[in-house]
Amino acid sequence: MIELLIAMVIASVIGVAGMKLLTSQTRFFDHETNVRTARTIARSATNVLLSDLRMVQDSGGVDSVVADGKLIRVLVPYRMGLVCATSGDITTVSMLPTDSGTVGMSVYSGFAWRNPTTGRYVYISPAHPTTTDVPVTSATPAACTGSGAGQAQIRTVSANGRSGNVLDVTNAGGSGAPVGAPVFFWQRITYSFRTSGIYPNRMALYRNVQGGSNEELMAPFDTSARFKFYKSGEDTARTAPPALSDIRGLQLVLRAMSPHAASSDTAVSQSQLYTAVFFKNVRAY
User: What is the pTM (predicted TM-score) of this model?
Assistant: First the structure.
């Protein structure tokens, strides 16, 4: 009987120790999972933002910002080409091959051509860019591909099974774009930090393409999530936005949060990520 009692005591001690170890490991795993979740939210938001912001032109590419850094609206290129001719309200362009998915998910807001003297892009926004004034197959493709007088002699390029296009785009009273000038189609995209529709009392990153609805991309974030601004000639991000024409890049302040607190924590886990993105579509280095 004594031996049995001793065995039961030893088994109980081992059982309690094993239970404490299991509980401790479970809580640790829960905590680490929450930390990874918060880190993933911040990194995923960064990847989405970089894909658009790196394409922005360093002069005229930022369309609007707000003083608290919670919203920025940018003109994002999504297709590149060359100007072939301008006749009245129609500019004929030869566009490089582009993935059909990119074109399908983009919303045309206008085109921009590069001034060879200043290096700046001139943005042209038609009256109805998302309805009647969208790019169409050119009625005069020879203006690009022809070798006659006044024709641009720009060969349409094909690559990886995709072909370029000769398109007509509408401008207001003549764009003034010279033959051979680089051109791109752009869409107006707004990124903002607003109250999440999924996580009450938390912030979310939203993306809105002009003409569409606000899309909640990533959440939740702390209320400190925002954009800061790099001004031309400076290497430290500003909290207050400078003049739009002086913005050369953005600092992303992303304090992401786990959706819920771990069993061993009194608050949700957080992961703070700071990263800088500078506009790559620049006039000169």
Answer: 0.84
